[in-house]
Structures are given as C-alpha cells and as structure tokens.
Amino acid sequence: MARLKQKGKSGAAKAYVTRSSAVKKLQCSLADFRRLCILKGIFPREPKNKKRANKGSTAPKTFYYSKDIAYLAHEPVLKKLREHKAFAKKISRALGRGEWSTAKSLEENKPTYRLDHIVKERYPTFIDALRDIDDALCMIFLFASLPSNPRVSPALITNCTRLAAEWQLYIMRSQALRKVFLSIKGIYYQAEVMGQTITWLVPYQFTQSIPTEVDVRVMLTFLELYQTLLGFVFFRLYMDSGLSYPPALDEAKDDSGAGVGAFTIKQVENTGPIADTRSANPVKKASGKEVRQALKDIVTISDTTNETMEPMPSTESVDGADADEDFVVQPSKTEGQTFPELPTFRSLEITPRQTSTTLFAPYTFFLSRETSRSVFEFLVRSFGGQIGWPRSSGSGSPVSEDDPAITHVIIDRPLVSKPNETEEERERRIKRKYVQPQWVVDCINAGRILLEEPYAQGKTLPPHLSPFGDRLGAYDPAAPLLATEADEDAEMEEGEESEMEENVTEANSGLSLPAITAEDPEALRAIELQAEAAGLDYGTFDKQVKKSRKQSKDKAPASEVNADEQNMNKMMMSNRQKKLYERMKYGERNRAAQVCLLIL
Amino acid sequence: MAVSEVTNGRKKRKQADAEPEVVKSTFPETVGLELPSDEEEGEDESDDGEVEEFPEIDARSDSEDDAEDGSDDEEEDEDEEDDEDEEDEEEDDSVSDSTSDAGVFPKPKTIVSDITGQPKRVYPDIEPDYDSDSSTEDDPNRIGNVPLHWYDDMPHIGYNINGRRVLRPALGDELDKFLSTVEDPQAWQSAFDKNAQMDKPLTGEELDLIRRLQAGENPDGDYNPYEPTVEWFTGKGKEEVMPLSAAPEPKRRWLASKWEKKKIMKIVRAIRLGRIVPSKPKATDGKHFYDIWTEAPSEHAPPLPAPKPSLPTHSESYNPPAEYLPAEEERKKWQEAEPEDREQDYLPQKYSALRLVPAYDRFIKERFNRQLDLYLAPRIQRKKLNIDPESLIPKLPSPSSLKPFPNYKSLKVAHTEGRTRCVSVSPDGSWVVSGDEGGNLILWEVIVGRAVKRWKLDGKIGTVEWCPRTDVAFFVVGTEEKLQFFVPPNLPRAVLSLTQSILAPATLPPPTPSSIKWTSSFSSGENEALLTIELSSGSGLPKQFAWHRKGDYLASVSTNESQGGVWVHQLSRRHSQAPFKKIKGTVQLVQFHPSKPHFFVATQRYVRLYNLAEQKLLKTLMPGIRWISSMDVHPSGDHVIVGGYDRKLCWFDLELSDKPYKILRYHTRAIRSLQFHPTYPLFASSSDDGSIQIFHARVYNDLMTDPLIVPLKILRGHEVKDGLGVLQVKWVPRQPWLVSAGADGSAMVWCS
User: Fold this and answer.
1) Closest residue, chain A, to B399 (C-alpha)
2) Nearest by CB to B317, which of A182, A239, A566?
3) Before B55, cis peptide (omega within 30)?
4) Superfamily grouping for domain A272-455
5) B313 contact residues in A (CB cutoff 8 A)
6) SS3 sequence of B353-401
7) Average pLDDT of A381-394?
8) Which CATH number fits domain B405-751: 3.30.310.50, 2.130.10.10, 3.30.1450.10, 1.10.10.10?
9) 3-class SS at A386?
10) pLDDT per residue over A413-460, tens digit each?
11) Which of A252, A358, A419, B382 is the most buried (most CB within 10 A)?
12) What is the C-alpha separation between A411 and A437, in angstroms, rounded?
C-alpha cells in the first residue's frame, strides 16, 4: 500500500511560508527581515490557492516562497545583522556604565557588511545589472538634491551627488543620451548604454523635504544597495571605456560650484588589454593592420588634449576647452582619411543610433542665469555642443559671455526692451539666437536642429510632447494637425483628386477614430455620452461621426453582412473565450472613448 | 504699620550682623541653630506678637556671616565693646516692641562674660514705662496649644486661662475678603492664622521660606552646604598604622601574575607575527569597487528583473497640448477621488515657461511607493494577449453555404383563446394541428394556412401529436386526464378505414386488467374523438407524448407524477402499462430511441436511458441543467440535445460520454422546445425570449470527427406574453420548414 499522504506536507502548504513564520525561522526582527528582503530582492508571492498555502485558513497573509526564505537563512548579511544586534546591546551597556574606552573600541570594531556578493547574485551578468539601474539612478538623483537631516547624513548625500555626477560624466562622454522629456514631475532622461535603454527621472532643482508618511528606513536600505550597485556598474562602464574609476574630484573647483566640471576623468595608461578584449568581439575577422589602426583610432579619440587638437582642421573653435574636460568628443585626426571601418566595440555601439550624437557640435551655447545650469550643461555637452554660463551659475565656464563664438543663448525670461544698449551689445544680440530652453530638448527629441523662430524669447511655446510617445492606439496630438491640413488641402482642390483625398484622410484620422467608425451601437452610445459629459454639443459630435462613417463606408457593406454571422458565431465560443472577448472589447471601447474625449 | 516694622527689622538685622559671628567662630556647631532663631523670634514678636508657627530662618544674616566668617575673626574682639553699646540701644527698641506686643519674656542675649570668659545670657532691663505694660491692649486669645479642629463644629474655639469660652470671631463673607484684598496692598503677603482666626501678614522670613520651598532649595536658610571638612580619622597625625588583620600578606601583592603575563605574551607574539595589526586602517567605508563580473555567471537563471514603470505620456509634459488639460469638472473629480482610485497620479498642467515649473510635491512619495511595490508587492507574470478580439470568434462556414434552412415567416394562424400550447405536423408534411389553452384545436394546411377544421374540447390542451405512420392518419390530443384520438376530415377511404380499424376495431382484443380505460366511439363523426384513453383520475394534464417510430406504442407523461406520470400505451392491444414502478425525480420528458428498443426518460436533473427489451438502465446523462425543459434525439440515435430553463443547451454524444460534449448558452430566457429535423441536418430551439434559433448540426459517421454545429438564423416574430415566448417548435418532415406555437396565441410557419 502506498504511503498515506499527510496534510500540509507537500504542495502549496510546503512551498509557501507566511511572513511571520519566515521571521520566526530567521530569528530576526521584522525590520531586519524587511531589510534583507530589500537587499536580496525577495518579494512576496501570490499562491494560486491561498487556502491551501495557508493550511486551510483563509486569513489574509503575506506569503513567501519557502525556498526564498531558506536562501535567506544562510545569508552573510543576516549574520552581520545579528552581530550588529549584539553590538548594539554591548555599546548601550558600555555607554550606560560610562565605560567610554570600551565603547570607543566597540565602535571601532562595529560589524559592517558589504553587499558585493548580493549584487553579483542578483545580477549575474553586467547587462543584467545595467538593465536594472533605472530605479537606482532615480534614487541617487533624488538624494543628491535632498537637504541633510538627522536621518539622512551629509556623507550619504555627498556620495549620491558624486555618483550622479559620475553617471552624467559617463553619459556625456559616451554620448549615450537619446531622449529628454520635461515633465511636471521632473526631467526624464533616456540613454542607451550597451544596448540597454535606461530611463531616469531627475527632480527639478528645488529643496525637497521628506514627507512624514514616507518610511526613511526603507528608502535608506534601498539606497544602500543602489549605491553599491551603481559603484560596480560605473566601475565597469568606466573600465570598458578605458577610464579610471573613480574620477578624481577637485575640491577647490567643487567648492566654487563647478558641478560636474570638478571631476577629472583620467585615461588608464594601460589601454592595451582592454582594447584587445574589445576588438575580440566583432564577428568579422580583422587583419593585423586594421587592428593596429583601430587601436590608434581609439587612443587618439580618447586622449584629445589641446595640443593634439590645435593643428587639426576642425570646423568649430575649441579654444575654451579645458584640459581636463576632454569628454567633448572631437573628430579625430584620422577622420579625413578613408579607412576600412573596423567594427570596434565603440563603433558597434554607435551604429544603431538614430539621433545624431553630434547634434549641437557646430554650436556654442550660453546659458542665461535663470536657466538650470546642471541640466543644460548636461544636455548640450551630451550632444557635442559647447556651453558657457555666467559666474552666478558657478565657476568653470569655458566660454565667457562676450565670446564671439556663441551662437545661441538659452534664455527663459520675458522679452524686455533695453533702452540704453551699447552698439557692441546690440550687434551681439543680433548675431546670436535667443531661444527658450524647450528648444534644446525638442531638438534632441526630433534628432535635428529645429527652427529657432517659434522658440524665440518671449514667444508662446509650441506644446512639448513626450518623446516616449503614448501607448499604441492612443490619441496622437501630432496627428490631427496633419489631418486637418490634409483636409483643408483636399477641400480646396475638391473635384480633382478625390481619390487621393480619401486615401489621405483615411490614413490620418482613420487611426484616431477607431471607435466612431466601429459599427457597435453600444460603443457609439458610450462615446456619445462621454462627449456630452465633456461639454460637446451634439452637432459637432454628429459631424465627427458622420465624417468618420463616410471614410469607412467602403468597408461597411461587406462588414454588415459579416456582422450578423460574427454575432451568431459568438454563440459557439466557450465561456472563457467569451469572457476574454468581452474584456478585450470593453478595454477597446474605453480606450476609444478616452481618445474621443481628447479629440472633441 | 506692619510694613514699616518689617523694614525696621531688616535694618536692625543688618546692624546686628556682627554679633552672631562672634559666637560662631568659637561654637560653630551651635550658633547656626540658636542665635538667629532667637533674633527672629524677637522680630516676629515685634511684628505681631504671637507666632511660633513657622520655623524661623534668617537667610540674609546667615549668608553674610559666611562671607565674613574668616576675615572678621580677629577684629571681633576689638569691636565688641563698641558694638555692645550700639546693640544695647537697638535691643532696647526691639525689646520694647516685642514686650509691648507679645507680652512674653524679653529676648536674652548671649555674650562672653568679661570676667569668666564664658558665654552668658544677658536679659535686657525692663523699664517700667507705659509701653512696657501690655494690660491695656487687646488680649490675644490664649486658648493654648489645643488642636483647633476639635472645635470645628462648636461656636467657640477654645477656653481662655479662666476657663471661659473664647468665641469664634466673625470672619466675614467672601465679599469682605475680596474687598480686603483690594484695599490692602499687602494682602498677598498674608495668610490665615488658625489660632488667631484672622489673616496675619507674613514676615519677610516666612516669605523667604516660602520662596526657598518653591525653588526647591533647602528650607533652612542657615544650612551651609560648603562646610569645611572635619577630618576625624585621616589627615596629618591621624594615620592608621595598625593592620586590621594579622594574616600574612599574599604573594600577589608583590609578584606579577603569571597568567596575565601569559596572556599578554600571547598578544605580543601575535603582534610580532603580524596576526594582530594594531590600529588597523579601516576598509575604506565599503567604497572599494572592482570588476565583479569577471568570472562567468552561474548556471542559475537570474531572478526576473522588476517590471519597469511606464514611461511618461504627453499629458505629463510641463507644456502639454491644450486638449490634455482637464476641464474644471475633471479636475474636481480627480481631487475628490481617493488617491488609489485615480487613473493618473497627477493632474496635467500647463506652464508657459520652464522657469515657472514648481517642484513636484509628491516626488518622494512616488519614489517611496515604487519601492514599496518592489519589495512588498507580489509579482505575477501576465501573458499579454496582443491579438485581435475578433480572432477569438470561431471560424465557421457561412450560413449561406449551408442552405436550405427556414429564414422567413411565411404564414401565421391565430388562435383566439389563450396561448397556443402545442403544435404537430402530419407525417406527410401537409397538415398541422395546433391546440391552445382554451381547448381549441385547429387543423390547418402548412402551405396556405387555411383552417380545415376546428374542434372545441373542454379543458386545456396539454399536447398534441400525429401518429408517425403514413398509412393511417390520426393524431392524439392530451386533455385533462384524457388522451383523445382524432381523425382529420377528408381522408381517402382506404386510409380512413385503416385508421378506424386501428382506433376502433370491430373485435376488441381481450381486455387486460388495468386502471386505464380505453373507449372507442364507433358512431361518432369527425367532431368526436374516435378513441379515448382515460388515465387514472388525478393524473393531471398530459404534457408530452412520444410515439414509437412504428406508431404502435405511445408514451405519455402527465403533470401529476404522484400517480405514475409515465404510461406506455399499445394501440394494437388496447393496453396501457406503466414502465416504471417508481422513478426518482419528476419526469419531464420521455423519448423513444429512433432505431433501438431504448427509452429516454428526462427528469428535472438527469436523462436516463433504459433498454426496454432487457429492462435495465443503460446510461444516465448528466447535463448539469436546472431544470430540463426539453430534449430530442438525433435521427441517428447517437446524439441527444437537452435544453433547460437555465438557458443552456447541452449536446450529448452517447458514444462519447455522459457529460455534455458542448454546452451552448445563447438564448436570453429559458429554452422551451427543441427538435432535430428528421431528414435535414438542422435543429431548432425556441425560447421564452420570443426567438427561435436554427442550427446546422452535421453528424459524421466516423467516430473521429466531432459534430459540426453552426448557428444559422435567429427567427423573430413571436411576441413575448406574460414572460412566455415560443412554446413549441416542430419541423415539417421532408421540408426545411418550421412550425412554431407561441404564447401570443399564434402558430407560425417559417420557410426557407
């Protein structure tokens, strides 16, 4: 006879443990358990059958995989946390007894833990780690902008600031920035590093205060992990581009508000092995000569100094560039000559880019003092431009205000006429272009230099759209403009190109009005109601509907015949399919209604 | 008066400061206690006479004493004489005051006698002047030191020296008290004296005492916390030289510990060998980074990365297109909604310039929420279906390719009284008989709908059914407790005679003992039933008939099952029998198998299949319907469809399983009737929603192919009356036509 199955010995009852039993098993406090979960990336699971996992009870519980908990049980950090508990007891006893020297020696030998192994465990490959640094970057940039308080030490903030600057330096140097979006929450940046898209959000430069409903302990634990993770990721990134990590910080410059300019990026002397490892990647076999040439190429790109730059027949003036700020990419000496391209690591990295990374290379910018220097310095330099700023925005400006090389001034002030302007100033004003900050961002997102005129100082700006777009089928604010234009055109030359007109309108607004064209009377009714709620009169709505109906007329007769059949065929769907179908249709209707709300 | 006295007293005290010092230097222990108290007593007396309530402390004099203690020592002797003179005078004043007020003994004075060199008490002289006599003044009460609360409920407060009662003085009411506080600026300095039963101003010393108590200082003004140490057993010349015990001194007093040495040597050796590094530099605050991704990763699959938050859309822009800006209503709705219920966690806003964009107030909160999501939220991997919903609809052959099937209403026959309950089509497909609840029975032609004959029966008509034989023509009608057999008019002679011979044979077969009575009426014409079978009384209305394919057996189901609802009647033997002695559940329907001697019985929940020849149960079909309303067997005999009041239609493949092969639910109300077409691959269902649904149902001979069911047409035309729609549908044999009977009192024919 087979062995009798006992209850709770197998299956879900064994695979899941509740949080309280996990804490009991690990013999640590709940706070420590949480900390461990954060560090190790362990999160609760939802069992398929809660009752079975909970051994018959239906009480609401949090479940973890028992394997996850077993995995936590021999975690070195847990041991350290226990040691820390003992340490805390010892030191409080020593302090209570006034044994200062004991306390001091205890404090010196305080148990500390490192998170290296956790980083390695959670991210077995570098790409894994790189893929997951979005949140880490957001946190680092947030804490870099926070004021210190008793919970958030100044050392922590300094470290965050440093990491943020290192990341910006790397992005500027590798010219990896792709998209920027000025939102009401902050500035979203998107970069592409080693094929991974990384998006991070930086708050606007205001003092933030931590609200009371936020548990700082949790944030600090995350930050602890993120600092370690970013340290290792940056080390690898810097190493891969042949730089030494960490970059040296010039204290004096930093104190005078030089920002990222306070860091000095140094090339690692021994570039040989790195270059070798890099050129080992390409699929194509390279001849020895080519490899040598590629090596030379890399070296010349990387150590561009003033001396090497001067004799070069470069297009723009680079006179102001500091010796230490060599991460503005300059065209290399070998550019003019034709060489068979060897796909080095870098060139492979560059090729799939759509946006030009040297978008601003021909231009020199000057920041007006009300614009954020840290933001626009980062943006302009990421796209190869030169930028200067007034003294009030910090020291280290490579371009002074009266430099004749300046082509654009980024200004965010209303237009004020200056009555007493010297001749020189007037001339300078005419020569330069004054643009609002949005121009820079829109240029980056468009991948080309846009006309400055709509963005000129004091002008009402055109809308700033998200470069990340919206979800599929959502309302596209750029499309209606095109559609109406096309409509107008078509109406003007009414009879002639009626065929083409139809094609155009269908292509443009057929997309934006999927719901209205739909034959479903329920959907139409829902849209109508929404439109009414939005305060639209029936006439306009009707016109819209008719227009879209007209567009889809050709399709209509055929579909009408099918509609009945389709409706009848729905009878033969299984219950599950029917539900799924209804859900999808419901979502479709909702989305269409939302789009409709925006259009009308 | 009191104030001046107090100030006087203070002055005096200042002048008299020197006196106690004299004594203090010589008797440090006692002076502090004795002298000032004496002095103050005097002062008290000078103020108001009888006191002794509060301990008297002279703070000021004392502190001055302390300050001058050391310096004054030598001078005092010289000053003494002069002082004495002055003091005498002052003393006189004070004494006179005190004596006049209190009438107690004058205060003694302690001085060092010139002669003996010992301190002595000197009392001031009593001068017999007017002031010294206190007899003329008001007597203070002299009730003695008797607790006053003894007299709490008495009118008096004690007894004087003569044994007379001393009455409680009038105290005045609250108003008086208040007025006295207003009038007297010193009222805050006075306290109620119980013995005197009146308010007494506090002396400066008492106030000082109160202040000390309030400040938490030592109440004793004379207390000196910094008294010089008295060395009793230590100090020069007082060393203890004798040992306390006679035990010999232990070795450890002069020999270094061996074990300590060993321990130390261990550490020293470790340091020498470099095992212990003193003041080891710290490990650079964990900021040491290196390339941790050098060796190949383990085979373990990396943990799934956390889902990334969705990217911002246009509406989050600082300068969005105007259509994204919420209207006032939307804004209000958003603000009133709970944060969890909001679709977006922000309200779109437009700023004309970047410099005007403020800080986002929920930034940290949102970051925090993201982190909570990361470590507290269970994650589920959801497959995102990126398919066209239309692709979920099964692809079926088009109905137009499956013609013919009925798709329009060709004619309608109206019953005037009540619902048309039942309808039946003759086996040759040209006649229809329909019956209603009013007892009307109409025989009409299928093609033109002309009513050929009408019968009027008494009571409701439960069901009507043609005999399937083609060589005879009659139909059976079920009314209350009766089965009546009718013959249509205008029959060919041969058919009529054969029919009559079956229903009313000239020679009756021998009667079998049964409760069912068969009566034939030979004389009657077409208006009367040719044969009547009377069921047992109380069996109710027959609700369904089922003919055996050969037309000899007729099964009937009656509504009242308690009497045995199912009967099988054999026409040739004119005999009825109940096949089931007892059956579980209410029998709804019965059906003969089209080819085998099998019998289907549908109760409310189950369909049971019996073998009549072997008299046993073959199968129980479980449709899971509550409750079964209709059933039909496919002409092949292998498939059964069952409809129910819960709108479900179940298709059973008898070869396959006793669970439904397919369950369809398309009617919006209960299914009333179902029928397979005898020749075409069609079946129809009717429902209380007033619609008839036509299906194409093709059954294949090979066992591998599933039956093909294609919905073809929804026929609408019957009206819903009192919640009832189409009550029965019947196919016209040999034609793809359908006859239906509705609750609206009409019968309809649907043609292709």
Assistant:
1) A565
2) A182
3) no
4) BRCT domain (3.40.50.10190)
5) 466, 468-471, 474
6) CHHHCCCCCCHHHHHHHHHHHHHHCCCCCCCCCCCCHHHHCCCCCCHHH
7) 90
8) 2.130.10.10
9) strand
10) 888 887 787 888 888 888 899 999 999 999 999 988 999 999 999 889
11) A358
12) 7
What residue in A sits closest to B279 (Cα-Cα)?
A108
Question: Could you tell me which residues come within 8 angstroms of residue B172 by beta carbon, excluding any fewer than 6 positions away?
Answer: B180
Residues in chain B within 8 Å Cβ distance of A469? 313
* CB-nearest partner of B368 from A159, A214, A468: A214
- Using CA coordinates, name the residue in chain B closest to A441: B354
Nearest CA in chain A to B305: A132
Sequence-distant (≥ 6) Cβ neighbours of residue B11 within 8 angstroms = none
What are the residue boundaries of the structural domains of chain A, listed by start? 12-74, 79-108, 116-246, 272-455, 513-599
Domain ranges in chain B are 2-146, 405-751
Edge-to-edge strand list for the sheet holding B553-558: B542-547, B553-558, B566-570, B575-577
Of the ranges A150-164, B203-217, B518-532, which one carries the lowest mean pLDDT score?
B518-532
pTM value > 0.90: no
- Say yes or no for a CB contact (<8 Å) between A412 and B355: yes
Average pLDDT, chain A: 78
Q: How far is B498 from chain A (nearest CA, A)?
A: 47
Q: pLDDT band for position A283 (50/70/90)?
A: very low
| Helix, strand, coil fractions of chain A, as percent rounded to 5 | 55, 10, 40
Largest CA distance in chain B: 183
Higher-confidence position of B28 and B309: B309
Confidence of residue B300 (pLDDT cuts 50, 70, 90): confident
Give the count of beta carbons closer than 10 Å to the beta carbon of residue A26.
19
CA distance B471 to chain A (A): 41
Are A565 and B712 an interchain contact pair (Cβ–Cβ within 8 Å)?
Answer: no
Q: What is the pLDDT of residue A396?
A: 83
Strands B440-445 and B451-456: antiparallel
Query: For residue B309, which residues of chain A lie inside 8 Å, CB to CB?
Result: 134
Residue A275 has pLDDT above 70, yes or no: no
Q: Which residues of B fall within a CB distance of 8 Å from A37? A: 375
**The two three-digit tokens of residue B654, written as one number:** 């008898």
What local confidence, expressed as pLDDT, does residue B562 receive? Answer: 61
When comparing pLDDT for B177 and A60, which is higher?
Answer: A60
Residue A21 has pLDDT above 60, yes or no: yes
Q: At B544, list the tokens.
A: 């369904």
Question: Residue B361: CB partners within 8 Å, gap ≥ 6?
Answer: none
CA distance A464 to chain B (A): 5
pLDDT, average across residues A358-386: 91
